[in-house]
Amino acid sequence: MIQTDLIIIGAGPVGLFTVFEAGLLKLRCHLVDILPQPGGQLTEIYPKKPIYDIPGLPSILAKDLTANLIKQIQPFRPTFSLGERAEKLERTDTGDWRVTTSEGTLVQGKVVVLAAGLGSFEPRKPPIPALARYENKGVDYFIKDPEKYRDKDILIAGGGDSALDWTLDLVDVARTVWLVHRRSEFRGAPDSIEKVMRLVEMGQVHLLTNAQVIDVHGDQERLRQVVISSEEMGQFTQNVDHFIPLFGLTPKLGPLEHWGLETSKEGVQVSFPHYETNVPGIFAVGDINTYEGKLKLILCGFHEATLMVQRAFHYVHPDQKLSFKYTTVMGEQGLLKKAESL
After folding, report:
1. Are 154 and 240 in contact (CB under 8 A)?
2. CA nearest to 82, candidates 36, 19, 29
3. DSSP notation for 146-162
4. Is the same domain home to 200 and 226?
5. Cα separations in angstroms, 251 against 13, 189, 257, 264
6. How far is CA 13 from the centre of its chain?
């Protein structure tokens, strides 16, 4: 049995940062994640993708952000159950929470924090019958290593931030880049749209709007062609090495759906300002939660975790008064003392 203060479900960026904020309040943390390593989507889906919206860091690779977060929490000595899914949640006779993982690990604590991102997720796939035949043989739903596309002909489908960002990131890597979107307007950040349009004007990106890939062809080894239906150009076949449909992810909460939590299609409903669910003592931070004005950004998840631990403290130490100090006032030695007291 693993004893802790906070049981954190999810070891993505928000889950990792929760450890830091909890550590400042001398709260112990144990993290459970179905992935074999910390980092969540940053590690599993786009480790080499630049991230631009972390304060003070104009640009940082996803894998480097993960490494920095892990380094930041090392003084607080969190423990992990990686490669394990949180399967069962129950109340003990003492009022604590007990989580049982898919591997039979038992973790007991005063507070449960859901930081599972999109939960168990899978990509939204276009309805193309032959698509599955070429998955990992030219059809990719995630981009882990941009070098895979070095000097290749690629076609990206989608109109959101992922499609736009990867178009910008791969234009100097691939031999040719096609961007196909089924609508005329994009859903991504205005700055990204402007940059992509500039590349289109320069002839570096081939853009088709009001168009979609309707079929794929190849041989026994891999994908060779896609069939595109376009309002402007009709139906035609295009030779490509890689077809990358980026239509987002379908979130699945998995066992969390049976924990008595109030949920909607957007995620787990939480209250403001401490991001507590309808079940007292269970909180949700990051992409997994939803509330009025919610933005699914890493930096928003960091903010949520910071406020959440203030409330979680009172579940762990109901008789103690919380004394919060700025980290700049505490200094490095103060942080180390906090960590040593855990």
Report:
1. yes
2. 36
3. GGGGTT-EEEEE-SSHH
4. yes
5. 17, 22, 12, 11
6. 8
pLDDT, tens digit (0-9, with 9 covering 90-100), for 311-326: 999 999 999 988 766 5
* Cα(180)–Cα(160) distance, integer angstroms: 11
User: Mind listing the pLDDT tens digit for each residue in 224-257?
Assistant: 999 999 999 999 999 999 999 999 766 667 788 8
- pLDDT at residue 44 in the model: 73
Backbone angles phi, psi at 192, to 5 degrees: -65, -40
Amino acid type, 22: A
Domain that includes residue 200, residue range? 125-245
Residue 117, by phi and psi: left (phi above 0), alpha (psi -120 to 50) or beta?
Answer: left
Question: What pLDDT digit, counting tens, does each position of 99-111 carry?
Answer: 999 899 999 999 9
Number of domains in the chain: 2
Distance CA 178, CA 208 (A): 8
Do residues 332 and 253 share a domain?
yes
CB 310 within 8 A of CB 324: yes
CA atoms within 13 A on the CB side of 144: 7
**CB under 8 Å to 328, separation ≥6 — which residues?**
none
Structure tokens at 229: 């239906």
